[in-house]
Amino acid sequence: MYICTTRLAMRGYRFSKYQGGDANQSTFERLLKIFQDLLLYTSGNVDEALSWLTTLDQEYELTTPEYGISDFINELEERGYLKSDRNAGGEVGKVPTSKMEIALRQKALDDIFDQLKKSKRGEHNTKFSGLGDEATSESKPYQFGDKLDHINVSDSLRNAQINHGVDDFQLTERDLTVHETYYKSQTSTVLMIDISHSMILYGADRITPAKRVAMALSELITTRYPHDTLDIIVFGNDAWQIQIKDLPYLQVGPYHTNTVAGLELAMDLLRKRKNNNKQIMMITDGKPTCIKKGKKYFKNSFGLDRGILNRTLALAVKCRKLQIPITTFMIARDPYLVQFVDQFTKANNGKAFYSSLEGLGEFVFMDYKENKRKKR
């Protein structure tokens, strides 16, 4: 039995006992999983994460007399997970390496999508056969336009022997067969993450699950679908693009929610993509409360402002005309928020999910997978 983090509370972290675990895991491997969770909660602050790990060790005896926290830290450095670097104040401290960032994304994918990864659901295949790039065991007669590298040589030679005999052997077009193929669609995705203050309001931690989902999705696309593209946007008062490596360090700011800015940036990014299949995924917990008018911000935190709402809905319609579906993952279920998302979804002809924090990863994964199953 060891300890894992559960969520960020208003005055600090809450932890719960984790039952089970792999008995064959070493102390380092068990500590690494807990430390990775803590790193995500602390937005990459190694000192804070180690402080929490030490506190947990004192209370729950995570280490052994032969292997303590100092040994764990040394092994993290030896294995290339941590390195020494200077912070903005010039002080030398421990920071995560790129190896740790990759490990965090892999862990997120394993944690959220483990069961779905083991199934065969959600491959890039469509149910349609024809021109494509994934060969199957089935064959069909050759038709003009079929790729020559898809010719089934053994079946074609057998057909020629049957049709013409051995003495007058010849290979004609009607003897040829080609492997059936499934088209594996390529998709350009923009993932929008709300980093407004409401994502941690009233002690609720919505940003950590959102980060974990984004990390898992990025790992899924970059490792299994390398021809796809993923752009990540965060939006508060404004919207800006971040890199995959920045996800563990993402923090909520004292921002309102400028959904318009996020959508405008997402559309700009998708215009540059050559794929026919494009989509926007938006993880948020609240209504749009901010737009920019010239150089000034117009903000309204109380209720759905008609001017802000109209601008947001207009962009939803524009995305629909450009055949860019928007999938909204609302991490809240207040009636007036549900009403807004319903309007937004109808305007875009997209999808909406009202999920708990625990179910967020599966929703994002399944929708991304289902959107792959289309014929261009």
Give the topology, please.
Blueprint: E1 2-9, E2 12-18, H1 27-41, H2 46-60, H3 69-78, E3 82-86, E4 92-96, H4 98-118, E5 129-141, H5 153-164, E6 177-182, E7 187-194, H6 207-224, E8 229-235, E9 239-242, H7 259-271, E10 277-284, E11 290-293, E12 296-299, H8 306-321, E13 326-330, H9 335-348, E14 351-354, H10 360-372
Parallel strand pairs: 7-8, 7-10, 10-13, 13-14
Antiparallel strand pairs: 1-2, 3-4, 5-6, 8-9, 11-12
Mean pLDDT: 83
Strand content is 15-25%
CATH topology of the largest domain: Rossmann fold
Task: Tell how many strands the DSSP assignment holds.
Answer: 14
Amino- and carboxy-terminal Cα gap: 50 Å
Oligomer: single chain
**How many structural domains can be distinguished in the coordinates?**
3
Radius of gyration: 26 Å
Helical proportion?
Answer: 25-40%
Walk across the major sheet and give the strand order. 9-8-7-10-13-14
CATH architecture of the largest domain: 3-Layer(aba) Sandwich
Question: In sequence order, what are the helices and strands, one letter per element?
Answer: EEHHHEEHEHEEHEEHEEEHEHEH
How would the global form be characterised? flat
| Sheet of most strands | 6 strands, mixed
Separate helix tally: 10
CATH superfamily of the largest domain: von Willebrand factor, type A domain
Output the structural class. alpha/beta
CATH class of the largest domain: Alpha Beta
Low-confidence stretches: 1-11, 117-134
